[in-house]
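Hi R.,

Here's the chain you asked about this morning:
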Amino acid sequence: MYVRYQLILRGLFSQEGPFKRKRKNMSNAPYAVDVEEGKLYAWCTCGFSQKQPFCDGSHREKTEQRSLKWTAPKTGTVYFCGCKFTKKPPLCDGSHND
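And here is the predicted structure, written out as tokens:
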């Protein structure tokens, strides 16, 4: 099943990972979240949010990065990336283990 997501920031991801430098609230573990089918989630890409893994708007004063909007394809538990180096945003792909 393909997961649809919309990348808000141009050039967010690169071969070295999604960010040019480490952000404040990054985690080396994924966030387990119960999601609802069809509901829109705003995943934090900047690492400044106090409501990880979701965006709380903290980026507005600190960076030009924006949240990544993701719609849950089905109801259940998913694992949102905490390290921000996933190659399958916004979900964890184990990149924190590399």
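One quick note: Confidence is low (pLDDT under 50) at residues 1-22.

Cheers,
M.
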